[in-house]
Amino acid sequence: MHAHPDFLAHFDAALRGGPLPAGLTARDAAEVERRFAVYRNNVAVSLTEALATRFPVIRRLVGAEYFAPLARLYAEADRPKSPVLAEWGAGFAGFLDGFAPLSAYPYLGDVARIEYARGRAFHAADASPVDPARLAAADPGRVRLVLHPSVALLGLTHPAVSVWARNQPGGETLPLAAGPQTALILRDAAFQVPVQAIGPGDAALLRAVLAGACLSDAAAAAQRAEPGHDPQPLLVTLMRAGAMTDATE
Amino acid sequence: MTALPPHLPGLGFKPDHFAAIRAGAPGIGFFEVHAENYMGAGGLPHAQLAAIRADHALSVHGVGLSIGGARGLDRDHLARLRQLCDRYQPESFSEHLAWSSHGAEYLNDLLPLPYTEETLQLVCDHVGQVQEVLGRRMLLENPATYLCFAQSTIPETDFLTEVAHRTGCGLLLDVNNVFVSCTNHGTDPRRWLAGFPLHLVGEIHLGGHDTEDLPSGPLLIDSHGAPVADPVWTLYAEVIARAGPLPTLIEWDNDLPEWPVLAAEAARAARILATGGAGLARAS
């Protein structure tokens, strides 16, 4: 007697719009379809809300009325694989890239990449900042910086950092950049997750540090990417955010 | 393991209310969180939960285990739950008599199951597995349902009672769910409650519902987005009059109001707990 797996399969298929499973009953048999619709609606609405929580700027850009059916299409194509909904949406950026009705807005996928990365940074593991004295005493030719688990670099095809920033409270008048951007995302000591566009020198420095290079090699990589690059402002930003968590020699 | 405090009501913890709670939450006996919202590695959610936990009793309420599923529980998810319970040592862990995943996919709703000998055995196996992995007794919650199944051969109260007897788990009585389901199915919530083993209840949930009018009568939808309805308060007072004080949670997850609105709902529950249910039961 193994009826339950079949029951679940039929119920699930019906949630996706298939015929109702056998054996459903209600006070009035004519209302079975209407009652089943409560479950269909709960699944669709709750997943739409979960996606909207994760991608608020995408929702703002396309509008709430467009976002709801868009989220339903995405949920059908890429349902959550875990009850931890904060992990859902890794495929949303790629879905938007390939979504023909929105092809006039090619930056949406990159904005979604930023929002997904911000979510990951928000939930990333905790780590305490390194003692500044230890950093000051370190030999730049040997010291390797360990960055906070939330630190992420995103190479974006479109000026999506500026689009994201213009859709934050008070950001409406910020300039819209042109061309590709690299985003630095991290969680600061107050649990905020700012997004900033960084230049080729900063990006090369961070990539080298994240790959385990010592500080002077990372600075040399930054020079090659951007002659005359000054590493100081980026290092100050990281220090102030508590994003340097260790320095090993 | 200590139990949740029975004399002062609890509230669902929402990050929006963190500052208000830290400023003092008089009369609140415990806070409850959804387990799945605290399964990230770190950051603000854990910082807030650690601060709340330091000052209050805690209930961890799972919504994603899919205990009514057919394929065995998600071992990764169980391991995350174990980690969460180990870290915060909550006074209570509870989950639902429902399914929410199918295959590898999570549906994010508490879906109904027929009550049969087959599903009874499955649910008992799953509850047993949860209790073994977590190393603690869990509470199983009665669902709000919109449909019934011709396949069902066991009344809901008997099903829950039997799960508790076979696995040793406790029960979470959601009084709003009783009212919602019984109204939707044209049955008597007092009869349902008369058949329910109150001595196995470790926690009570009270939440709000929405109402839709169908030709056959009202269809109630468990929304957790409104004040607790008056008939639910009355049923609750009757339960407390019968069973004595029980840990009671006000659930409000959607269209979240300001803190004082929630605190007022908790105060109403506190009055019923303090008077042993007598006052309100008479007034209705």
Structure description:
- The complex is a heterodimer of chains A (249) and B (284).
- In chain A, 49% of the residues lie in helices and 10% in strands.
- Chain A has eleven helices and six strands.
- Chain A has helices at residues 4-15, 32-54, 56-62, 64-77, 92-97, 108-123, 132-136, 160-166, 200-210, 215-225, 232-240; strands at residues 24-25, 144-147, 152-156, 181-185, 195-198, 244-248.
- Chain B has a single domain, classed as Divalent-metal-dependent TIM barrel enzymes (TIM Barrel), CATH 3.20.20.150.
- In chain B, helix 4 crosses helix 5 (156-167).
- The mean pLDDT of chain B is 95.
- In chain B, helix 2 (44-55) links the parallel strand 2 (30-34) and strand 3 (57-61).
- Chains A and B meet through helix 1, strand 1 and helix 2 of A and helix 2, helix 3, strand 5, strand 6 and helix 4 of B.
Keywords:
heterodimer, A: 249 residues, mainly alpha, Outer Surface Protein A, domain 3, 2 domains, three-stranded antiparallel β-sheet, two-stranded antiparallel sheet, elongated, B: 284 residues, alpha/beta, TIM Barrel, eight-stranded parallel barrel, two-stranded antiparallel ribbon, 13 strands, globular
